[in-house]
UniProtKB/TrEMBL annotation:
Source organism per UniProt: Streptosporangium sandarakinum
One Gene Ontology cellular component annotation held by this UniProt entry: cytoplasm
Lineage: Bacteria, Bacillati, Actinomycetota, Actinomycetes, Streptosporangiales
Record flagged with keyword Cell wall biogenesis/degradation: no
UniProt-recorded name of the protein: PhzF family phenazine biosynthesis protein
Top-level division of the source organism's lineage: Bacteria
């Protein structure tokens, strides 16, 4: 297991939005991941497992208090950690509770994310 702190949305230390990234060697119990996220004290900590033989990585996110179904900045934080290994494909696929998410790095190093979008719903502003 390896644990990182990554600042998303910046190229400077101690700026942006920090997230924990935990690369798991084996599946971990939910209670253990929750406890580690609480100790990290970031708004979210990402837990990553797998990704062998072209299969999507399993990705989950925990706040210090609960698991969440989707987290953009912690997903973005996970990508450079994987790219730094030198073995990750340019397009990363993550299996999550929100479906399959894709993250791509272009030739300039820019990382983009493809996340699911919910359909728009009409709302009565008087009820908001």
């Amino acid at each position: 297991m390896r644990i990182y702190t990554v600042d998303s949305f910046t190229d400077q230390f101690f700026k942006g939005n920090p997230a924990g990234v935990c690369l798991l060697d084996n599946p971990a119990p939910d209670a253990w991941m929750q406890a580690l996220a609480a100790e990290m004290r970031h708004s979210e900590t990402a837990f990553l497992l797998g990704g062998e033989a072209g299969e999507p990585y399993s990705l989950r996110w925990f706040t210090p208090a609960t698991e969440v179904a989707l987290c953009g900045h912690a997903t973005l934080a996970t990508a450079p950690v994987l790219y730094s290994t030198g073995t990750a494909p340019e397009t990363l696929k993550f299996a999550t509770k929100s479906g399959i998410l894709a993250v791509t790095r272009d030739e300039t190093g820019l990382i983009t994310m493809d996340f699911p979008a919910k359909p728009l719903e009409e709302t009565d502003p008087r009820r908001a």
